[in-house]
Amino acid sequence: MERLIFSEEQSFKQSFVPWIMLASILVMLLGFGVSWYHEFQPGNYPNQAERHALIWSSVIAFVVMTAVFLFILSRKLITEIWTDGIRIKFMPFIRKTKYVGISEIVSAEVTKYNPIVEFGGWGVRKKLFSRKTAYNVSGRVGLRVHLKDGRQIVIGTQKENEIRRAVEKMMQNRIEKFEM
Q1: What gap in Å lies between CA 125 and CA 154, rounded to an integer?
Q2: Domain locations in the chain?
Q3: Strand partners, 82
Q4: pTM score, whole prediction
Q5: CATH of span 4-10+77-178
Q6: pLDDT: is 168 or 31 the higher one?
């Protein structure tokens, strides 16, 4: 009977990304405020077309930036380690749970890595011209899984010690199940 050993849910709410997005929205609103002030100050009489263009460009830019901000905040990385393998879900990109069976795993270890240098950032990332894939939200610690077919998966974590113990339990179960 398979059982859950470890579970972690991460989101971009825990990282620096929302602050950057919020700062961008505030800078944009400040820019629009300055534009509106210059456009509608006394003595300046813009024509109707210029006024409508300013209003609509402000509204559209604000709506688009807010939608992007909310979309990024809605992303979640769910990692589960079971006695029979690893399950990954990265909402909303990977709705179906991605399963890596214990029989496919050659080795798994918790390591430090550089997401920007190795994968080009955070999120679901595939390294060009290699067989490496990363699922991460923030930080520099992850579970690196080497598979029998030569692929490598890195799953970011904020719970370094807990995931290390879970991987040891999972791999011990592998030894008991497949090598006996």
Answers
A1: 10
A2: 4-10+77-178, 12-74
A3: 4, 85
A4: 0.72
A5: 2.30.29
A6: 168
